[in-house]
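Entry 14: structure prediction run for Pilus assembly protein PilZ. Input pasted below.
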Amino acid sequence: MIKIGTMITLELSGQDQILKCKLVDQEENILYIDFPINSKTGKTVFLPNGTELVATFVNSQKKPYKFRTKVLGKKKDNLPMIMLQAPEYMEEIQRRQFVRIETAVDVAIHAINQEFAPFTTVTNDISAGGISIIIPNGVDVPLNENIHIYMVLTFMDGTIEYYKVTGKALRVVEAEHHKLASIAFINIDEKTQQKLIRFCFEQQLQMKKKGILNE
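Run finished. Output tokens:
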């Protein structure tokens, strides 16, 4: 069961829309959500009965799940709600299954125990489970040591948000013109992970529109 108050990301099948909503109630076979908001426009979205959706959320143990559902109808109470079909099966999203997007995000890397001087760089790619960064010349990133990562994420609706997460560099590889460090996030909180999932979905949609990424 999904905990009441959990934030849920909805992706419409066959459409370039990412919606945000909250679980407000549930019964054995029905999930009740508030009216979802389009993450790009910030406007409320009205979903016709039968609309098929892919839902993603992070549970209280910080594990992300996804499931397929569809709109069953609407319910008027103290709060207008949309009824979704409760999932028969939910798939846990493994770290390797997170959508990984090649995009440049501004980041600052800080050592927790001052093993190296802080530095700024950009990502080579990003997912809700970790990032790879371009290592500036003259910088050494120690492996298997906890570090702090400060990120700046720009969403489709124009909002800019700043996040601090803890990570660990797992490996350093040689690329064509620079070195890359692969960093896994550690003990990331539910809200931040959900934001990263949303950011990656939005980047994926933009790439599909531009023809950079195939369906």
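Notes: The two ends are 31 Å apart (CA to CA). Will compare against the previous run tomorrow.
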